[in-house]
Each structure stands twice: as structure tokens, then as C-alpha cells.
Fold:
Amino acid sequence: MIAPGLPTPFAEDVLDVVASIPPGSAASYGDVARRVGRGGPRQVGTTLSRYGSGVPWWRVVRADGSPAPVLADEALRRLAAEGAPLAADGARVDLRRARPWPDPALSDPGG
DNA sequence: GCAATGACTGGTA
DNA sequence: TTACCAGCCATTG
Structure:
């Protein structure tokens, strides 16, 4: 039971990774694509748009921490409700602290 | 098989 | 920090 219709093998991996993101955390499309090891950030977004109806898609945002314009309202509400580290703008997520897969190369050297 | 589309990303000014 | 451009790759018609 993966998703409605027939998601491609690539989509299955994407959905699996997104579903692996714990509540209160968030990751970027690029991060998910890297976890999948195939395709790119655009494929992750396109896949979620078609099969993301069964995964916490709101935990996936752009590289700058802001969700897509068609999700900004919904995603930000879900993230704030889960206690995700939002930025001072309240319209972005602090991936630096929300990232479920901390990268030593992306860690904040000053923080 | 070809061309077009898309919930993106990184570098430069 | 904000804005513009080119690259990337799977899915769709």
C-alpha cells in the first residue's frame, strides 16, 4: 500500500524518505533527493504533487526553508502546530535545526 | 522516441 | 539580502 494509482519505483523511495521525517522536523527537496540517491529536488516535488497525498509533505520545504507558494499556508500551519523551528519571519523553517539528517558540513560553526 | 513540464538548487551581480 | 540565469532529471502527452 503505497499510493493511489501506480507510483514509480522512484516515487516509492521518495514517499518512503518523506514519511521517515519525524514530526517537528523538516527537510529540503534536495535533502530528500539525496537520501533517495536518485533524481533531483524537482523530481521530489513533482512526485509529492502526485503521490504526496499519503505522506507528511508539509515537512518538505525549499532549500531556503520556505514551502512552495501553493503550500505556504497549509505547510506553515502544520509545521508550527508540530513545533518545528520556524524562522523569525514565521514564513520559513530553520532547516539548520529542523533537519532530521544533520550534515556536519552544513552545521552551524558558530552555533 | 521526442518535446514540454515542474511543490528546485547554486552561483553571480 | 534580493533578483536573475542556467542546470538538473523523472514524469507526462
In short: The radius of gyration of chain A is 13 Å. Residues 8, 10-11, 33, 38-43, 46-47, 50 of chain A lie near DNA strand C (CB under 10 Å from a C1').
